[in-house]
Amino acid sequence: MIELRQVTKTVESGGQPLTILHPLDLTVPPAQFLAITGPSGSGKSTLLGLIAGLDAPTAGRILIAGRDITGLGEDDLARLRRSTIGFVFQFFHLIPSLTALENVCVPMELAGRHDAVARGRGLLAEVGLTDRGHHYPSQLSGGEQQRVALARALSNDPPILLADEPTGNLDLDNGQHVMDLLLDIRRTRGATLMLATHDAALAARADARLRLRGGRVDTAGA
């Protein structure tokens, strides 16, 4: 379960405080698919980054499976991400000097898994890239790169998947393919999926929806 208790995020902008996320309470049950919608700048990416421990809230508490992560140091947060949270970004964030297979294996190698290569090949097969493991990101299409990123996010069997506009940089067909893969993986693995998206059709497939506007929950647009 994911719980946010009065979580806020404020930054300095032009010497003045700018609140990106106003006090937010949120509970996401295990295995739920929650779509986070709202216009650009509404706080969607900030919310996912806070839950992943990539950023720290200004105030409030974030609990993952009952564990308060807001007081954890960087090493503990890194371990949490390796074991519990898979993150799929809009712009892939693959390492250009590594092959597709090597990119997928990185989190497993950091976790000390001895079966990283065999499992990496299995994950690439799961996302339909059996024959592309030896290719570098520059040799892959955008859709293929996003599927490699998805395989990498799944490498340590995380119970939580966070996806920030995973189809936003893809054409319609590739975006549909990646979304179908995400939903199939969520169903077969029983993972919790939080998806930030501008796409109303994608959001409509979720179990629940959270709409943000100006860093606040937009109940009128929910």
How does this model look, in words?
This protein has 222 residues and is α/β, with parallel strands linked by helices. It has a single domain, classed as P-loop containing nucleotide triphosphate hydrolases (Rossmann fold, 3-Layer(aba) Sandwich). The chain contains 7 helices and 10 strands. The chain has helices at residues 44-51, 74-84, 100-110, 116-126, 142-153, 172-189, 200-203, and strands spanning 2-13, 16-28, 33-37, 59-64, 67-68, 85-88, 160-164, 192-196, 208-213, 216-217. The strands form 2 sheets. The chain has a 6-stranded mixed sheet with strand order 6-7-8-3-9-10, sandwiched between helices. Strands 2-1-4-5 form a 4-stranded antiparallel sheet, with helices on one face. α3 (100-110) crosses α4 (116-126), α4 (116-126) crosses α5 and α5 (142-153) packs parallel to α6. The relative contact order is 0.20. The model has no long low-confidence stretch (mean pLDDT 89).
What's the Cα radius of gyration?
17 Å
CATH class: Alpha Beta
Largest sheet: 6 strands, mixed
What count of domains describes the coordinates?
1
The secondary structure category is alpha/beta
CATH superfamily: P-loop containing nucleotide triphosphate hydrolases
User: Termini separation (Å)?
Assistant: 22 Å
Task: Report the uncertain regions.
Answer: none
Number of strands: 10
Task: State the shape.
Answer: globular
| Sheet with the most strands: spatial strand order | 6-7-8-3-9-10
Share of β-strand residues: 25-35%
N to C succession of SSEs: EEEHEEHEHHHEHEHEE
- Examine the coordinates and then state which fold CATH places here, giving the name of the CATH topology: Rossmann fold
What is the share of helical residues?
25-40%
Q: Provide the residue-averaged pLDDT.
A: 89
Corresponding CATH architecture: 3-Layer(aba) Sandwich
Q: What is the number of helices?
A: 7
